[in-house]
Each structure stands twice: as structure tokens, then as C-alpha cells.
């Protein structure tokens, strides 16, 4: 059985890991990057509290010694279901079973200026671009004499009140109070503001009311200006424009407001559901197609009575679907019955700042906040990293940041365009 997996995020890597040492199954994982990375922590790379290698790991090194796993660097161009073949940016691949684990991409809701000018927060490359942009703007502000221009350089607007938006705005607020005062004495930090804006009426919408309130209170105490029921409609001439007519002048609009799945040539329109997600049955097989499956953020799966409108696009769904599909592939080889997917909600959490977090556990319904919730957040994210090396590096960086109230990773590293192919 030849299985081709497109995408090496939470869903794809867990599917591949679970199929290791299965002699009757040959797995090829395809990804446009040569590394797996941990999306929940990219904001810490973006704010220079972690180095990129702390949350990423090369696929080939991870697959080394695993005889039935192979890696292929490439980008999917099209699918030919009739021929059971895919076309990549660097050649073709045949399959017996094809699995889409392509995740989701940033959605700008059709706003061209936002797409062109905002800073996205979805990939490791986005995080590095954001870090460089913010550090360069700080250096510009340090020598800028015009207070209006300096304010634009120092003001940060974060769009999106989900976990990423909450976490990155809390980080910026703490940096403003500590790091900027120490390292940029020439700056008047009162000229800077951190805004967190969201179109809904609460932060962390999927979490409990208590978590929403605790998060709002903690952020405002840190000095973040939270603006709810406030939708961004444009970003032009360094001005964020809101639906209600308000504006904020800034050079830094960080976009964490929405995602959508990708559409692929060769997959018929009828196979897509809400949010451009591939519609699948309870076994994750794409509707209307044979031998093609979809898991994670790119899939909307029917058959789970607890989630009639589809599962949330979160890491735990992707991980559990990857593991369940792997078991079903093993069952196919052994001619055993398949197991439908049922999501087990293990809870949700978000970090707000140093020793500040919120955690909701579903059964029993427990809510934690503050230091204890922060410890839970640290532990869960550490054990979720792909290798022991990642865990040790991240733990060390966190301990340095906690006790020193700082990090030494704020370097602007730009590749020379002349050396790039």
C-alpha cells in the first residue's frame, strides 16, 4: 500500500509517525518546507523569545532510519484521481491512497490592502518577517525626531482576538514595559500603544465566559487597548480603517483574524464544504472521491454527533484525526473493520503574559487562571513539541526569559537576495 500525505503539520506528521515500521505500508510525506514546525509558538519566534530551531525540525532527520517513511520536498500543483497520481512542482507521484493534511492559510476576507500590507501570523517564515519588521521599526523610531512618525512606528495593532492575537498582544505589552525601557532609552514608550481588535463581542470566543473575562481584565491591566465589535475594513497609507469609521495610524498591523482552507486543481467543487474545507465522511474519506482522504484544518468531517457543524480547526482535532486514520490504514491491511472518527475535547488554553494564562478543561468543567494555568500551558506545549531537542531548547529559553525577564535573540537577520536561487 502506497500512501502519499500532502502536508507535514499536526495531522500529517502524526499520521506518518503512527505508520512507522509497517512493512506493508510505504509512506511518502510531501511538504513545501523541509521541516515540521509548531504553530502555537510562532508568536514567540516573532517576538524574539524563541529561535526558529526551537520549534522546528527537518523531516529528513526525523525520518532517518524509518525504512517505510520517505520525504519529498515539493508543492502540490494538481491531482488526477482517475490516474491516482499527483503533480508536484518538481515531478509526479503515484499513490494507492492520498491524504490531504494541508492545514489552512491566512484569510484576509477579500481585503487587498490588508493582504499586501499587514503582517500575517501563520508560518515560520511569517514569524521571521514579523520579527525583522518590528525590530527595524524600533531602530527607525530610535532616530526619528517627528513624534507623529515615531508613534506610527511604535504603535502595534493586532487583529484577531483568538489565542494567537491574545498571546502576541500580551507579549508586546510586557516587552514595552521592560525590554524597550532598557534597550531603547532614547524612546518615549508613552508614544507606543498596543491595540487588540476583534469583530466579535468577546476575546477567545470558543472558551468559557470566565476565561474571556479573565483574559480581558489581564490584558487591559497590562496596558493593551482591547476594542471588541470592531472590524478592520482596510489598511492603507499606514492607517487601519474600521467598519465604524475609526482609524489608527500604525506601521504594524499584525493579522491573526482568520484562516481558510486551500483549493486544489483536480478536486471537484462538490467535494468542498463550508470554509473551502474538503467534506469527508466519518472515516475522513473525501466525499465523491475514492482513495482520497482529508484530515486536520483542511477537512470538515461529518458523522460526529457532538460536532454536527464540523470540528474546530485546532491542533487536537488534527492530531487525533491523524492517529485515527493511521489505525484505519492498518485495519485495511489486516482486513479489519474501520473506526469512525470521534473527537475527544481535551480542553483549551491561552497564555496572556508572564505567569498569566487561562485554561478550560471539559470534564469536569474546570477553569484555571494565573500562575497555575500558566504552568499547565507550559507543560502541554513542551510535551507537544516533536523532539526532545525542541523541548530542551524551548524549556531553556523560557527559563532564561522568566528569570532574566529578557532574551538575547533580537537580531535582524536578512538573507542576501543576491545569494538566493
Descriptive report:
Helices cover 33% and strands 23% of the residues. With 421 residues, it is an alpha/beta fold. Among the domains are: 2-32 and 74-104 and 261-333, FAD/NAD(P)-binding domain (3-Layer(bba) Sandwich); 112-258, FAD/NAD(P)-binding domain (3-Layer(bba) Sandwich), CATH 3.50.50. A hairpin with a 2-residue loop joins strand 23 (348-353) and strand 24 (356-361). Helix 5 (124-143) packs antiparallel against helix 6. The longest helix is centred in the N-terminal third of the chain and has 20 residues, at 124-143. It starts with a strand and ends in a 17-residue tail after the last helix.
Strand order in the sheet with the most strands: 5-2-1-9-21
Query: How many β strands by DSSP?
Result: 25
What gap, in angstroms, lies between the N and C termini? 36 Å
Largest sheet, strands/sense/barrel? 5 strands, parallel
Overall pLDDT confidence: 91
Low-pLDDT runs of 5+ residues are none
Q: What is the tally of helical segments?
A: 12
SSE-based structural type: alpha/beta
Helical coverage, percent range: 25-40%
CATH class type of the domain at 112-258: Alpha Beta
Shape: globular
CATH topology of the domain at 112-258: FAD/NAD(P)-binding domain
Q: What is the second-level CATH architecture of the domain at 112-258?
A: 3-Layer(bba) Sandwich
Percent of residues in beta strands: 15-25%
Backbone CA Rg: 22 Å
